[in-house]
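user: can you give me the structure for this one chain? tokens are fine.
assistant: on it. calling the predictor now.
[tool input]
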Amino acid sequence: MTPTRLRWAVIIALVAAATIAIHYEVKVRLRAAAATGSVQSIGRLAVGDEAPDFTLTDLRGDSMTLASLRGRKVVLLDFWATWCGPCRIAMPGLQDIHDDLAADGIELVSVNQQEEDDSVRAFIDRKKYTFRTLLDASGDVGNRYGVRALPTVVVIDKQGKVRRLSVGHSYDDGELRRTLTALAREP
């Protein structure tokens, strides 16, 4: 075999191996997470970690600190933006979760990523969403939570531990509701 043919044979073998590895990752390893978007870690944040504390301002101009909910509420953080199609699709379902589960001690907090407060306010008002919306104008909180894609959902238990991480919009919120309800029953 000539050196040129050998080189091409090696390149083809490497491309074939890479293709098989990618297909395995997508079709086998990610299949379990595909329905819910659930993952075990994002960046340096993993399920079981202490949720990074933060203070942000809401659309009314009031400050909210995550630690203020510790010991009292299960928190669902939804990182989103008005330009994000999947975020917009997910929001009516999140409003339903807020309406149905707020009385059970579950606090839905939407964290808008790096948009002007006037455009966020107009969007929230037009859609008549009633959950608390915080403004992460610098993106610092999103960065601390490892947010690289929108929407990203983080569920935090009453003790401040991350219990679920989801990336992307799930069309079935049944598992999310079950998780939230179970966490609300914990001391």
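assistant: here you go. The first helix runs from residue 3 to 29. The chain has two domains: 1-34, 36-185.
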